[in-house]
Amino acid sequence: MERRKFLQRAGLVSAAAIAASVWPAGLVSAGQRASTADHMTAYGNSVCLGKGLGKGARPSQTWFEQTRRHFAVPGINGAVVGTTWLDSINTQKSYPERGPWLQIFWGGHADVMRGIVATIPNNVQTLVNYCTGPYLVIGTTNGHTGGRGTAYHDGVFTPVTGSNAKLAAAYPDNWLDVQQYLLTDALADAGITPTAQDDEYLANGQVPFSLLSPGAEVHLNLPGQTAVAQSLVIPFIEAKGWFA
What we know:
By secondary structure, the protein is α/β, with parallel strands linked by helices. The protein has helices spanning 5-9, 46-49, 63-71, 85-94, 109-113, 120-129, 151-157, 163-170, 178-184, 186-189, 196-203, 222-240; strands spanning 39-44, 75-77, 101-106, 135-138, 175-176. It has a single domain, classed as SGNH hydrolase (Rossmann fold). It has 12 helices and 5 strands. It has a 5-stranded parallel β-sheet with strand order 2-1-3-4-5, with helices on both faces. The chain starts with a helix and ends with a helix.
């Protein structure tokens, strides 16, 4: 499937369906966690919530709603504007489990901006530990700010020691590097020819301008959210068989 090309190149899926997840050591064991789901939810901040679609777009066009509709499952987006991962832990625990849910975690911007990037790995582990069904960890992304040479970029994107690298190492079978996808494939998947401003952003390690909402630091616009949903999140979940 053409839309899986980023996943295949990154070694996240093969041409055929990939094997079921192997849960990271030290977390809830596979025997205690359902391998499939009948609902989906998401936790994080405004990027996860789908803010920034742009004028004329509808809430039903967020990456979350596109994904949920594709699988025809009920769901709740539990993301809240401006929240840290610690806030998300409290939000997550306020939603009673109604059976096996696929839980998706996309955030971290607020943690970086508040100077608590070092807390991200442990707080995400707490979120994962609370899951009774499959889960998907999406790393922190940048946007109009957070380019190379900034504390934001160093804290999140530095190999091995950055928060994204630590999450990727902890959840190798449940991790999607959305930042890398946005830098390498999303413009083409969205049918957008890079502009000079896109090239400037990319050279600085930032999500391309044409995929961002002009009114916020890290929000994706409708083409950006559609690319993430249709070419990354949906194919990954399909390959996992989480909504069998």
